[in-house]
Design goal:
- The chain is mainly alpha-helical.
- α2 (42-61) runs antiparallel to α5, α4 runs parallel beside α5 (114-132) and α4 (80-96) runs antiparallel to α7.
- 57% of the residues lie in helices and 10% in strands.
- The strands form two sheets. A three-stranded mixed sheet has the order 1-2-3. The chain has a two-stranded antiparallel ribbon with strand order 4-5.
Length: 200
């Protein structure tokens, strides 16, 4: 009887461990780019841009070391970690816009550890993509890029999101790829941003 209880306990333990690992895998989207939609609605096009950004970010940040995170191109330049923190801020704006939520400047926000920063950035990209998927041009016209500081609020059309935060994030992910190459830890050479899959 005791052996059966022990066996059941061991089974449940490893089931929970595996379940936790599966959750971790599920929480990190963009190991590969999702299948493309069946039509070119306005929302699908922007969603695909964000998916491409998510895939690039996933592999640009995969396997970064403490040395990489401290690397900066010059004494005046941002470190890799500071660049990733900036991309995270951009990802918050990207996910806020299709919900018409304001971007509120918060200088007291605690700094996230790298792994959490990476996860939350990827989850923001994924949620934004899902919010935009299938949306029409008329839907996008209702979305606003909102900045709020105290009682002051500024609103911009969604056009500014495309040439603003989305394009800016792609630009900075390219910097991350360059930084890690300079610090001696280049990105996986089997990453194919055109195909959206990474070779083994």
């Amino acid at each position: 009887m005791n052996i059966k209880i022990l066996a059941l306990t061991v089974y449940l333990f490893f089931t929970q461990v595996n379940h936790g690992q599966n959750l971790d895998i599920m929480q990190l989207p963009y190991e590969q780019i999702p299948e493309y939609p069946s039509d070119f609605t306005s929302g699908n096009v922007v969603s695909r841009f964000i998916d491409g950004l998510g895939y690039r970010y996933y592999w640009a940040t995969e396997g970064l070391t403490e040395k990489d995170l401290k690397h900066a191109p010059s004494e005046e330049g941002r470190t890799m970690l500071q660049t990733l923190q900036h991309i995270y801020g951009l990802s918050q704006g990207i996910v806020n816009a299709p919900q018409n939520l304001p971007n509120i400047r918060n200088t007291n926000q605690p700094e996230l550890p790298f792994e959490e920063l990476r996860k939350q950035t990827l989850l923001n990209f994924k949620k934004a993509s899902e919010l935009l998927s299938g949306k029409s041009a008329e839907d996008l016209a209702t979305y606003k890029v909102i900045f709020q500081s105290g009682d002051n609020k500024r609103e911009f059309p969604y056009w500014n999101m495309i040439n603003g935060q989305i394009s800016d994030a792609i630009y900075h992910v390219g910097q991350v790829v360059s930084f890690r190459r300079s610090s001696g830890n280049p990105m996986n050479p089997k990453v194919s941003v055109f195909i959206g899959k990474t070779g083994k």
